[in-house]
Amino acid sequence: MSQPALRFPAEWEPQSAVLLAWPHAGTDWAERLGEVEDTYIALVAAITRFEPALVCVADDDVEAYARARLSSARIDMARVTFVHAPYDDTWLRDSGPITLVAEGGPQAPVAPLRREKAPAQRADEGRRAFRLLDFRFTGWGGKFEASRDDLLVERLEQAGIFLDSERQAIDFALEGGAIETDGDGALLTTWQCLHERHPGASREELSRRLAGWLRQDRVLWLDHGYLEGDDTDAHIDTLARFAAPDAIVFQACDDPADSHHPELQAMAAELAALRTRDGRPYRLFPLPWPRPLMDGGRRLAASYANFLVVNGAVLMPAYGDDADAMAAAVLENAFPGREIVQVPCRPLIWQNGSLHCLTMQLPEGLV
């Protein structure tokens, strides 16, 4: 059988919506729910300036409350859709769907899916425009309860929100924050995270599996880079991100006294050694380093690399630091022609994540 015409689009390609889940008292946000809700309101307001927001809610009461909070903030509610689905946590970058797009439009041929238990063949199977890759979500290697999160993609599919799509369940632990694509067949990831999830697999085996499932022909590995307070085992979306097929934005650290300095300097050297498909060095855009943000004696994982690209803009995490403006200037250079919108994210990093971790973009036409 010939290779199906599927590809993994880059984040800057056209989107139909951004998926996120509203925080409530039954999530880990309970202790600081008020200030986290304020951040969510700012985030939804920023998203809906450029495209719709698809907001998961746990039940009718959570929907009514979220609707009231967003309406009172004068958000365009015509661009907000609520969908009921139970969830353990709200980090939908890691529990949401990773979407492949069929080349050539909705009727482009796509190979039949491999399923652990194959259902009866449908007449239209193999001709869907989108494939929802539903990897196992294990709560970042079993650190947290994740049984409801692991079912999220299936629940959303059952709710009927996705158009012209098929879901492929894959019995392999992989989070969306662990991978970054340039939309042209190159995948960027970290060895620390994937090795932690699959300690018995070699780099060659992991490269082969990732390339096959995600339709990539190059897997680029980083061996360095981490953030204190990060419990994802070095997700790439806190460290380095494609801004174009030949450009990478990354979190730098220029303070030799900071504990991150050796690792992030080593990561910067690794990025400088990478080459594009045609053998050239990548254009690199180092992001500034914010002052240490602490919660008691605990360092919080503040990264400007955890931005979200939406239609016509880049939503950037802001931490109330002097470096916020410098980070915005770097992103403006890396993403020419897109508006840079700062979203206050300091309350989020109390739970070790930021703006990109909360969200999952959905390609144009999927919803």
From TrEMBL:
Name of the featured protein: Agmatine deiminase family protein
Record carries keyword Hydrolase: yes
Organism, scientific name: Cognatiluteimonas sedimenti
Q: Which residues cross the membrane?
A: none
Q: Keywords of this protein's UniProt record, alphabetized?
A: Hydrolase
